[in-house]
């Protein structure tokens, strides 16, 4: 990659405040000094037993801008890292100090349905001043996350999300692990306050709410010092409402070892672009190949195809003489997913709507309405002609039943389709392929097929994780009994 790679905030006024970036380096170094190598870095013992959702003021924009009032868990965004060993319980008391009801969803966990955190489906939203106890087992190792699941398109955009890490009993050998939460924020360029036009039709009917300030771990221009030949495990989480992150490595040699928490059968060399859709995660093992004095980068390809630094890794010194051998695969998780499609129940989901789409009409409240009428009610999208979550599920499945679900995207936008409670595999040429996933990016006008075994009883959402799309029609559910 030629030329200098710098951090760019997207369209937020471009102030490349050097003092800020230096301060970031200082902070990161201080945090790193505390971290011991190996597992259970620091979070497990210090993680709070409560998860309080409240308003807080943080410095999101570069120095020189005012602070931003956000909603965060434990006063920060991303919220505290929750870290457990595979098979352990996660217990957290959600305390709602927000001005509106909320709930927490544990994204990607094959969870007990009552703990899934979907307000209106698996629990009542927790009213302001009230609390709710979440208690569940994390059966699969991997990189997961938690986020608000009541009025998600507003609450997640305001900052209510955090990492949930489930460690392997035998983790891969690395020098350091970094959780990198990629996000974007839509801020007023003058005041740095969160733009509260969450229901703006233009965004809802197009790609969703795209921010103008891109951050990693709540900071613009994050920088992490490293040494040459150091091996890192990067746990990437896309926590943004709607932004798709195309990522590349510069000065780093890397392998993808897991997607959506689930290990790949073999590590895949990361040569080209890794596309991370909203809600998706990727575990990378990367070796620092840049020389001391240089800076390696996790690179984001901008809309204009210009590379920008998502995370900078300034290199000083050398941690070893020579590079290491390619990493081994991560140990597989217990659920292997669908193996055969014989007797699989065929389902079909047709997505329509959006700007420049072909949706003439759809149902809302049992009534067929034209696109304009739907738009006037804030509904721009539909699944199988339903512009809202229906009383009846998309499918009533018996426990253990294999399912093949065809997803037909008739819109001119990509959608990140997420299934709660169970993981699926892609079906290509009639066969399940690739790792288990919980979120699939379906490109504009594309048809894809996924397969899963309905092995987790309960009511499970299936929705677009471009969160304003979900709110404006792209949400359905399946029942497993
Ligand atoms: Cu991560 Cu229903 O969501
Ligand atoms: Cu989920
Ligand atoms: Cu969508």
Automatic annotation (TrEMBL):
<dbReference type="InterPro" id="IPR002355">
    <property type="entry name" value="Cu_oxidase_Cu_BS"/>
</dbReference>
<protein>
    <submittedName>
        <fullName>Multicopper oxidase mco</fullName>
        <ecNumber>1.-.-.-</ecNumber>
    </submittedName>
</protein>
<dbReference type="InterPro" id="IPR006311">
    <property type="entry name" value="TAT_signal"/>
</dbReference>
<dbReference type="Pfam" id="PF07731">
    <property type="entry name" value="Cu-oxidase_2"/>
</dbReference>
<dbReference type="InterPro" id="IPR011706">
    <property type="entry name" value="Cu-oxidase_C"/>
</dbReference>
<dbReference type="InterPro" id="IPR008972">
    <property type="entry name" value="Cupredoxin"/>
</dbReference>
<dbReference type="Pfam" id="PF07732">
    <property type="entry name" value="Cu-oxidase_3"/>
</dbReference>
<keyword id="KW-0479">Metal-binding</keyword>
<dbReference type="GO" id="GO:0016491">
    <property type="term" value="F:oxidoreductase activity"/>
</dbReference>
<feature type="region of interest" description="Disordered">
    <location>
        <begin position="310"/>
        <end position="338"/>
    </location>
</feature>
<keyword id="KW-0560">Oxidoreductase</keyword>
<dbReference type="InterPro" id="IPR045087">
    <property type="entry name" value="Cu-oxidase_fam"/>
</dbReference>
<feature type="domain" description="Plastocyanin-like">
    <location>
        <begin position="59"/>
        <end position="169"/>
    </location>
</feature>
<feature type="domain" description="Plastocyanin-like">
    <location>
        <begin position="379"/>
        <end position="480"/>
    </location>
</feature>
<dbReference type="GO" id="GO:0005507">
    <property type="term" value="F:copper ion binding"/>
</dbReference>
<dbReference type="InterPro" id="IPR011707">
    <property type="entry name" value="Cu-oxidase-like_N"/>
</dbReference>
């Amino acid at each position: 990659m030629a030329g200098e790679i710098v951090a760019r905030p997207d369209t937020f006024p471009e102030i490349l405040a050097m003092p800020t970036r230096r301060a970031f380096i200082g902070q990161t170094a201080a945090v790193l000094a505390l971290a011991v190598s190996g597992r259970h870095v620091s979070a497990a013992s210090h993680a709070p037993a409560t998860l309080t959702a409240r308003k807080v003021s943080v410095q999101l924009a570069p120095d020189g801008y005012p602070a931003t009032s956000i909603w965060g868990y434990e006063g920060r965004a991303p919220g505290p890292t929750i870290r457990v060993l595979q098979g352990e319980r996660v217990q957290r008391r959600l305390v709602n100090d927000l001005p509106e009801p909320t709930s927490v969803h544990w994204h990607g966990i094959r969870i007990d349905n009552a703990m899934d955190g979907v307000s209106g489906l698996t629990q009542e939203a927790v009213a302001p001043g009230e609390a709710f106890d979440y208690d569940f087992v994390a059966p699969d190792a991997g990189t997961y996350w938690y986020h608000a699941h009541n009025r998600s398109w507003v609450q997640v955009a305001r900052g209510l999300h955090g990492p949930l890490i489930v460690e392997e009993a035998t983790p891969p050998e690395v020098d350091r692990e970094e959780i990198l939460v990629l996000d974007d924020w839509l801020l007023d360029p003058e005041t740095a306050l969160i733009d509260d036009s969450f229901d703006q039709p233009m965004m809802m009917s197009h790609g969703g709410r795209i921010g103008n300030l891109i951050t990693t771990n709540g900071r613009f221009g994050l920088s992490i010092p490293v040494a040459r030949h150091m091996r890192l495990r990067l746990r990437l989480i896309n926590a943004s409402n709607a932004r798709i992150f195309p990522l590349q490595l510069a000065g780093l040699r890397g392998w993808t070892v897991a997607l959506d928490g689930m290990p790949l059968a073999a590590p895949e060399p990361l040569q080209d672009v890794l596309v991370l859709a909203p809600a998706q995660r990727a575990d990378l093992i990367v070796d620092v190949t840049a020389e001391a004095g240089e800076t390696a980068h996790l690179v984001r390809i901008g809309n204009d195809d210009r590379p920008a630094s998502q995370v900078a890794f300034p290199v000083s010194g050398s941690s070893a003489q020579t590079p290491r051998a390619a990493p081994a695969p991560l140990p597989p998780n217990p659920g292997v997913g669908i193996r055969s499609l014989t007797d699989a129940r065929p389902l079909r989901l047709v997505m329509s709507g959006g700007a420049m789409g072909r949706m003439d009409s759809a149902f809302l409240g049992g009534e067929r309405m034209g696109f304009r009428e739907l738009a006037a009610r804030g509904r721009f999208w539909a699944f199988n002609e339903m512009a809202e979550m229906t009383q009846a599920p998309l499918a009533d499945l018996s426990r253990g039943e294999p399912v093949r679900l065809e997803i037909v995207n008739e819109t001119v936008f990509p959608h990140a389709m997420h299934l709660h409670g169970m993981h699926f595999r892609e079906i290509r040429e009639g066969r399940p392929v690739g790792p288990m996933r919980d979120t699939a990016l379906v490109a504009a006008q594309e048809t894809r097929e996924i397969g899963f075994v309905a092995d987790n009883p309960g009511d499970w959402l299936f929705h677009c994780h471009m969160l304003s799309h979900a709110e404006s029609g792209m949400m359905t559910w399946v029942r497993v009994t």
